[in-house]
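Hello forum,

I keep getting stuck at the same step: I have a sequence, I want structure tokens, and every attempt I make locally crashes halfway through. Rather than fight my setup again tonight, could one of you with a working pipeline run this one for me? It's a single chain of 554 residues.
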Amino acid sequence: MVNFFEHQQQAKRNTGLLVVLFFLAFTLIIGFVAVVTAAVFGGIAVQQNGDYQFSWQPIAWVVLIVGGGILTAMLVKWLSLKPGGHVVAESLGGVRIEPNSTDPLERRILNVVEEMAIAANMPVPAVYLLPNEANINAFAAGYESKDAVIGLTRGAVETFSREQLQAVVAHEFSHILNGDMRLNIRLIAALAGILLIAHVGRMFLHSARFSTSRRRGNGNALPLIGLALFIIGYIGVFFGNIIKAAVSRQREYLADAAAVQFTRNPEALSGALQQIGAREYGSKIGHANADETAHLFFGQALSSWFTLMATHPPLDKRIKRIQPNWNGRYPKPKKAMVQSVAEQQASQPQPTALNRLAMLALPALLLERVRSPQQAPQFIRDMLVGQLLGEEQPQLETLNAAQQLALVELAIPALRVAKDSDRLGLLRDLEQLEHSNDLFHWCLYQLLARQLIESKRFKVKLDNAEAFAATVVALKRAEAQQPLNLAQLEQALNTCKSWSPKAKQPLVQKWVETVTSDQHISDTERKLVATLCACIEEPLPDEMLTNSASSNFA
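Reply #2:
Ran it on my machine without issues. Output:
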């Protein structure tokens, strides 16, 4: 039996070490540039006895200028990517799939992404298709969950079976939940900063060609500085890419382990990787921008002759970690989209613990409404605010809490692309829930607001210990039907949402301990834990996914 939890911990430890090495390399690069530049301008002098004399003022100025330039380049790159994962997806030729698409190929992708989002207890992200990429690959991009996107190549969608597609999407969801997207954006920005040194060196060399003839007798130092910066910059980029690739390899091991832990189906993920190995061009991406984003993908997006530059572990190692008894032989390539009618029917989602969406048995008409940018705002308003105002909604009155939470999460993609007037009107109506003592519906309002309103609206935070305690107290008071301090709870959620996945785990465990202290989890406690987890973007704990927990909180 493979210990996937141990693999996850090992990958996290290795990632931490590599990030430290990255910043160490960053510091050394600034130091080298400072020393070379200072030496040229007299900051370092050799005395008669052979000792070196340092003039710290010019060295300090060089460090300040170089460091400031690198940080500025990093900031510019980071700001260009911060608007969301759609920037990355569109730079790779991705086309956004409309949430209410009826195209069979696109609907197949959307159905799987929706299933995995509901299983992970998180809002459905935007989905992009890379129609010009015939090889097999996928990626997740964005800075936080509200701007996250899942991207799939045409080759992946046409090749994978439903279970394999679920496993690959689960792999990408783990990148979102583990904070890998933010780390990836920062690595891209850091390399852009280091690359600036090489670009400046190239500019100095280029300009030196026009000034050398005029200053030949004046000891022109510009070519020397330019050459030094050019060499140091590209050496820095080279080693930076090595460290970035090593970080990426560890995060891929972590995502593989998390996907298997999530789906409980190692054969599906192993089969997806084997389909990559079965093809001549495997997971290669042909777009010109693939070089900058290669570490975001599910499989090795670029050919790498140098093992240390590979952004992904070797396929056989990944497969062996997942399926130790694999015989080492890749299967014949196949396309899932040419399955027979019987095979397609057999691959339809079944009501299992993983596929909570199927278990919820949501009416097709309601699914159609929450997927429509034209209908979703009014539907969510009727479902949430209408209940508060006592409006008669016969079709909605029968919905249990789990169904309501799922419909809110499913509606997010449509609400994001709805007309501004419709979306803003919905948010104004939802403000009536802001002071509701019904914690469940208040949490649904928080979930929607955090996905649709600018993040600065939720900047006010508490001390970590105070935030931890405030959520536990709110859970206890809600079950006892006592008044809640909603302003404090909102600030506590702002604080907890910003924690790392590792820091969130004790909090969620405390919530579970709180609701199980009497050896029984009531329906009210179950739905409160589910909505609180959704607000801080944490998957439901296993205790909430037993018996009726995964179907209806009542």
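Residues 4-84+182-242 form one domain. If your local run keeps crashing, start a new thread with the error log.
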